[in-house]
Amino acid sequence: MDMEDLAYGFAQRAEGEVSLFKKNLEEMMTRGGVRTTLPSLVGLCVSSVYSEDKNFWSEFAERDQLGTLTVKRRARPIRDMFDLYLAPSVMGSICSRSNCGPLGFAQLSYLSTSRDWIAEFHKGEDVRADCIRTAHFSPSVRALPIRFGSPARWVFDGPSTSDWGKILLGMIHQVNEIIEWRTKEKKDVAHLRIYCSTNRFTPKAFFDEVNTPNIRGREWAAIFSGYSRMDRTTHILSPADQRRLTQKLGAHLQAHLRAKSGLKDEVEWYPSFESPLFHSFCVPLLYTTITTDEFPKLLNYAHLASMRRRLALVKTLRIEYQDKVSEPTYLQTFIYGIYGKPYWTLFGRVESKVEKELYGTERCSAELRIIIESLTEMMHLGGIPKVMPNLERVAVSSVYGHETDAWTEFENLQDDTAVDTVAEAHEAR
What we know:
The protein has 429 residues and is an alpha/beta fold. It has helices at residues 3-30, 34-37, 56-61, 68-86, 111-121, 164-181, 203-210, 218-221, 239-261, 278-287, 295-299, 305-311, 352-380, 384-387, 406-412, 416-428; strands at residues 43-46, 93-97, 108-110, 132-137, 146-148, 151-156, 191-195, 200-201, 235-236, 266-270, 289-292, 316-319, 393-396.
């Protein structure tokens, strides 16, 4: 499988996810929106549980070939629909990681505009659009969002040992784009708070790029005038160094925004280690009750102390099996099944009904193999008493409310490999 095949598979998978979001959001809107479906919602986190960002949506957002632009155009309205759905809630904050996804924030928007069209849609309802929007970003720095008129937070989520200069180059580029796109007709003021610093800085790598046409950060370079432009050394920045530099960065960005807009824009910039302990509030809410159809993925990082602390909060666990009925995506046809061959080798040789049944059993085999590996790893870590010591309730296949014959057909297979796999599964239970 070459990169073109892989990219096409990613695009098709994204198409499916976007379509599913659209369908479910439309259905929830017909039921009365968030006031009816989630009346007690006070906070929302997007892409925050599995603790991983493989930059799929970030890379996907930059693709301009292989049909991906179609998905990008379809993904943008999902953000507007999501805003409409959430508007009548009493929610105080939204947190998002991997902002390039269809449920991320628009990179630039205005409270006045959003309030007008949201109020038009939700006639007669008390709506709000000014909740705090926190965007967590990685060292790659893509699609930093801001809604002028509302509190915005940019929180760096990467390692403290990342080179700060490279991160700043990405942020400067993003800020320049926002300034260019901002319209002077709107009088919504910026309320931006940034938590970003690391303890590493390589002067030459920063200065070599900061004045390039792509970055256009000549004025920013003056903040680091204490370092030689030819210094290739990676300097270790103390907490005091980081505080001093972030104060200068915040003051410069605020002055820069005000000079361009003529408004009283507000910017505060703090070191990463001073960011609010957001997880101390959100993690207990996210992990006390978990519903997942990616159970193995939930256990992927159980060997890490940080993940073990989160899993220790779990009291109710609802495990769903993955879909075995719908047509496979292009990417899924390259997954290896019980015969040790990609799924695509099984198609085109039998009747459609048999083909679908065979695909269902193949997916059972693949899912079972992953579950066995995850449970085996969990047993090595000490089992449930160590990984989820406070677990009280487990429910399997209780949420989605639909059953298929895929597992029954899989159990009945006489293929030796399948029988061995089933036997292994029973031993692991």
